[in-house]
Amino acid sequence: MIAPIVGKLRKRFIVDLSCSLGLGTAAAYAYWYGSHLKAVERQENFYLKLEKEKLASSQ
Does 52 map to a domain? Predict the structure, then answer.
């Protein structure tokens, strides 16, 4: 007789859930620090330059 497989689905679910949460968090950090903050910095620099030009032309 073959022994029943008990608890395999639950263990696999916990592994899948923890891996997906870990990889999702890592991907989010990679996007945030690798792409998003650089884009925001470029945008802020552009508007700062625009404001300086505006002030220089008004004087």
Answer: yes
Say what the pTM is: 0.66
What is residue 4's DSSP assignment?
P
Range of 47's domain? 31-58
In a domain, 46, yes or no: yes
pLDDT, tens only, 2-24: 777 777 788 888 999 999 999 99
Rounded to an integer, what is the distance from CA 29 to the centroid of its chain? Answer: 4
Taking the alpha carbons of 20, 23, 27, 28 in that order, is the dihedral positive or negative? positive
Amino acid at residue number 47:
Y
